[in-house]
Amino acid sequence: MAIDQSFHDYFAALDRAGGEDRCYLCRRTPAEVKLFFGFGEDGTPLDSEKFGIEDITLERQDVMSYLGLRPVCAVCQLNHDALFAMGEHEVLERVAREMEHKREDLWPGPESSD
User: Fold this and answer.
1) How far, in Å, CA of 28 to CA of 61, rounded?
2) Rounded to the nearest 5 degrees, what angle is found at the Cα of 104, between the Cα atoms of 99 and 108?
3) Each residue of 8-30: pLDDT tens digit?
4) Exposure string (b/e) for 47-74, b if CB count within 10 Å is 16 or more?
5) pLDDT for 44-58, tens place per residue?
6) What is the spatial distance between Cα 62 and Cα 71, in angstroms, rounded to a whole number?
7) Strand partners, 73
8) How far, in Å, CA of 35 to CA of 39, rounded?
């Protein structure tokens, strides 16, 4: 993909997301996603000597997808893929419905804080 197309996709996604360069689901920034995977913002590994990965770099910086309706990070995509691989698609949908429609059953109310 040409770099000008990448910039166009990035800025179009920021427009769709209200100007926020964060994952729509977990709200991580690209730098936080890289840190989650053990890399600095420049793609070099953190604690490389400790883990013996001195020669590894994050060659492609594609830790966020800007091509969909909202930006989604690689961590959330992996979690989503894992849930589907385990056959948990319907459970995921049920959890989302519970979060939307039965919030009061999921979280303790003020009366249970003592």
Assistant:
1) 15
2) 110
3) 888 888 889 898 899 999 999 99
4) eeeeeeeeeeebeeeebbbbeeeebbbb
5) 788 877 777 666 666
6) 12
7) 64
8) 5
User: Phi and psi of 74, rounded to 5°?
Assistant: -65, -30
Burial of 28 (0-12, 13-18, 19+ CB in 10 A): buried
What pTM did the predictor assign? 0.75
Q: How far apart are CA 81 and CA 93, in angstroms?
A: 14
Interacting residues of 21 by C-beta distance below 8 A, sequence separation 6+ = 14, 29, 30, 64, 71
Looking up tokens 């590894």 gives 56
Written as six digits, the tokens of 101 are 């429609």
Tokens 């197309």 correspond to 5
Tokens for 40? 């600095």
Measured distance between the N- and C-terminal CA atoms of the chain, rounded to whole angstroms: 57
Neighbour count for residue 34 (Cβ, 10 Å): 23
